[in-house]
Amino acid sequence: MVVLKTLVAFFVFWAVIFFGMLVDFGKWLARVILRSRLRITIAFLLVAAGTVVGIGNAISSSASQQLPPQPVVFQHTFHAGQLNLTCVFCHRTAPTQAVAGVPSLEQCMFCHRAIGRERPEVAKLVKAYQAEEPLNWLRINRLPDTAHFEHAAHIRVNISCSVCHGEVQQMEKVTPIRSLKMGDCLGCHRSRGAPTGCSTCHY
Length: 203
Description:
This protein is mainly α. It is built from 9 helices and no strands.
């Protein structure tokens, strides 16, 4: 009888220890699973975010290559390239105002009253001028309505137009070269030691 009680106590003792080990193992396994799930979730979110950004950039790039045609084909390669006209020769308000502006028909006709009138694109220009109808130029670069960009402020600190617009004198068709999104602008400001406070662009 004593032997039986001893054996029972022995088995109960080891059963309790084994059960405790199982409980500890279960807790440890649960922690591992939770950590793994957390890692998997973080990895999934990072991959998803990267995918969204990649798709957005691809769409933006594709859209920039499929811009609708302008009312008149203006050759930057000729005017800014071969003739070496500066940007502000046509975009005259850039050094003094927020908006660079596009030249008026009258400004274009300063030259084209006597030059290039036999060319089809110049003929469109002359026709619009004679009819007193403005050309509806299509905007290439656009910032969100919540942001304000000051051309004059950038020109005053000698930021070249090509930093944002690219080497237009080499472009047969002008297309955006930068996203001009918040991260892009902030990165440029930080690299040049320019202000990065919210009120710099949002006011």
